[in-house]
Amino acid sequence: MKDLQIRATMCEIGRRLWQRGLVGAAEGNLSARLSSRQILCTPTGISLGHLKPDDLVVIDNHGNPVGEGKPSSEIKLHVRILAKRPDCQAVIHAHPPTATAFALAGEDIPDNLMPEAAYVLGSVPTVPFAMPGTNEVPDAIEPLLEDHKTFLMSHHGAVVMGRDLGDAYNRMETLERIANVILISKQIGGPRPMPDSAFDTMLKVALNGKLE
Asked: How far, in Å, are 9, 17, 36, 40 from residue 166 at the CA level?
């Protein structure tokens, strides 16, 4: 039952990403842990907007397929994240246009401008460029994994993780929306940070789940 539910959810999340323009064509990839030994992921070469449950691929903890199907070329990234962050059970890599533009321009997405940035995204580092589909990608992100759940990938889109696929998707959607708002604010005078006292309180809530 759990396998079927995760498969259905992964297809639904893929459809949302495609409908929202966060991926196009056969771009992007998703993964979610099925058990301590197996991971469910999207296949290579298929649009996330048109996935069917049977299209999805089961892999082991090293990225090797268990049964039929060929996983995404970026599965090395997913495997590394899931191995290093056991508190996170799902990973999404997408190409949200505005957030990706920030990465291309070398612009940060600050976490002290909007409450959602502090609560949902946290600090958003930009991972140095690495050749897609190689071990360079997980090697580049690994030093940042302990302290972050949201990443811009230099010239390569964005990666988020979450306690499940829904949580990860919300983080990706929030990333793109905040990037859009910051872009608009730059056109009408530039964004101004929240008061330090408010931001500090939000960070405490984000870290502890409640006010002290």
From this structure: 8, 12, 20, 15
Q: Pick the catalytic residue from 12, 27, 68, 74.
A: 74
**Using one digit for the tens of pLDDT, what is the confidence trace for 152-208?**
999 999 999 999 999 999 999 999 999 999 999 999 998 999 888 888 888 777 766
The 10s digit of each residue's pLDDT in 5-18 is: 999 999 999 999 99
Q: Is 176 a catalytic residue?
A: no
Domains and their CATH numbers in the chain? 2-208 (3.40.225.10)
Report the side by side order of strands in the sheet with 57-60: 57-60, 38-41, 29-33, 90-94, 157-162, 150-153, 126-127
- As a whole number of angstroms, the distance between CA 209 and CA 212 comes to 9
Amino acid at 73: S
